[in-house]
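Work package 3, deliverable 3.1, input record:
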Amino acid sequence: GAGVSQSPSNKVTEKGKDVELRCDPISGHTALYWYRQRLGQGLEFLIYFQGNSAPDKSGLPSDRFSAERTGESVSTLTIQRTQQEDSAVYLCASSARWNTGELFFGEGSRLTVL
Amino acid sequence: AQTVTQSQPEMSVQEAETVTLSCTYDTSESNYYLFWYKQPPSRQMILVIRQEAYKQQNATENRFSVNFQKAAKSFSLKISDSQLGDTAMYFCAFEAGGGADGLTFGKGTHLIIQP
């Protein structure tokens, strides 16, 4: 596709359930990022994939959070046993390695945990 | 580790005025990049302007320009002839050269352009 695609756009879940968020980066982009943005707040780094290198997981807030990426394609962010404080917009972005720093963002997945 | 600080949570100006958003950063890197991103109410982040640290000339993109003060580690964004469509959250971001660590964002400034 032409841009970064995220699904679902909105997700409402009950506390304790697992959720999976999906990101389709721009074709050919080797770098992929997940950020969390709470209401009215800035972007909180979660995880970063760069090509076939080991991902930088330093931003994951707890072991309930995990993410995978197959090669240089789709990534999924999984949150297990969701808590109310997990409610946020989860933004995915990709970039081409040769064009350092210009991130192309998806529209995000808004997660609401009741 | 890098830090990016935006000290203005919210700013409001009249349409057609010029506004400056401030950003400071802290790093021990010598080679890096700085960015301003815009996030309108639609939620999608858009790159506004970028600056390579090794370039002395300030970057300019139409009505948007930066004042990059490397020694002071300051990177402000100036918006000239502001328009209603400029209303958005603006995030300053830093990336070390090579991009190995990804981008670090500030907490953002909510800019409101009043008619």
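The radius of gyration of chain B is 14 Å.
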